[in-house]
Specification:
8 strands; two-stranded antiparallel ribbon; alpha+beta; globular
Length: 322
């Protein structure tokens, strides 16, 4: 079926700083061998081919007071010092997984999951952090605001939720450190040393959607991720399969809504794995010129408040019948 909207085209101004290498090539599209990811965006701009585009984005987001305030809020959360590590672990905690979930909720997470740190989450050129576990947390965004995406209002909301994710991760890390266990928090959007989405999927927070981001069974795609690394005595959660992959096979809503037509309608081979993939070379220019996007996350049927759990139930019934 033909698209209902014309395909958006990037400006000549932005294309002047476009690198000679394709972002899809850097991401490993078409590669048959499994390998660690290569840094591509949200890294120090001098270290990546797309660094000039990253700088272009920040230069063109302007000096909106609300955005400046949100970015300062995020930086303040990043700069807050960590608590010292207590001399010995707390003897009163028997179920550390349950205690971590309680702490995550207390510090503002809508959900959290635990998975093992794996080397294949870590970008090439970065050392694997010396921690056994990743506590991955999800913080929800305002659906009413995100319905305006792409807009300055939605960019401010995204930035504020990154700040909240950082504060939540730091709160959990400080709680762990106060109970005698080293812990390192991390919140976006800068990519740091490792990927969060694969870890979040393994931690049971959801599944990869056609739009290249995650689908949570309750929050849909309307959330941001952060994490805490630790060696506390935890156990891994199980990955979820609630039918979203089958749903995405037949749903075209995000693909039809994408202005640059970047969302692949079929799965793509990427670094040895066939999965949902978004064309980086089409997505990034629109993201930059729209001053962030998230349109695909907002239109995902799972993202509408109250819809996700109902869809999960319907998908479960279909499986039972099938």
């Amino acid at each position: 079926m033909p698209r209902r909207i014309p395909v958006w085209q990037p400006s000549a101004d932005q294309m002047q700083v476009w690198p000679s290498v394709s972002g899809n090539t850097i991401n490993g599209v078409g590669e048959t061998e499994v390998r660690r990811p290569t840094p591509i965006y949200w890294h120090p701009p001098q270290s990546i081919p797309h660094g000039p585009l990253q700088l272009w984005f920040y230069e063109h987001t302007g000096s909106d007071p609300a955005l400046a305030e949100a970015r300062q809020e995020r930086q303040t959360a990043i700069d807050e010092p960590l608590a010292p590590i207590a001399v010995s672990p707390s003897p009163g905690i028997r179920d550390w997984n349950a205690a971590v979930r309680e702490a995550a909720a207390a510090y503002g997470a809508e959900d959290c999951g635990i998975t093992a740190m794996r080397a294949d989450y870590v970008f090439q050129g970065h050392e694997v952090p010396p921690y056994r576990w990743m506590i991955v947390i999800a913080v929800a965004q305002s659906y009413e605001i995100m319905k305006t995406a792409p807009s300055r209002q939605s960019l401010v909301e995204i930035t504020r939720q990154y700040a909240r994710g950082t504060r939540t991760a730091k709160g959990i890390a400080n709680w762990l450190r106060g109970n005698g266990h080293d812990a390192l928090p991390y919140g976006g959007p800068m990519a740091g040393s490792f990927l969060l989405i694969p870890a979040a999927i393994q931690a049971g927070l959801g599944a990869l959607g056609k739009h290249g981001s995650m689908i949570h069974p309750v929050l849909g795609s309307n959330f941001r991720l952060a994490c805490v690394l630790t060696n506390a005595p935890l156990e891994a959660d199980s990955q979820q399969d609630f039918g979203s992959d089958d749903f995405c096979l037949n749903c075209q809503i995000c693909a039809d809504a994408c202005p640059p037509d970047a969302i692949k309608r079929e799965k793509t081979l990427v670094r040895g794995e066939t999965r949902w993939y978004v064309d980086f070379d089409k997505c990034l220019p629109y993201f930059n010129e729209a001053q962030s996007c998230a349109l695909c996350l907002a239109v995902c049927p799972f993202s509408r408040p109250g819809v996700g759990p109902n869809l999960v139930q319907k998908l479960a019934r279909r499986r039972e019948i099938g």
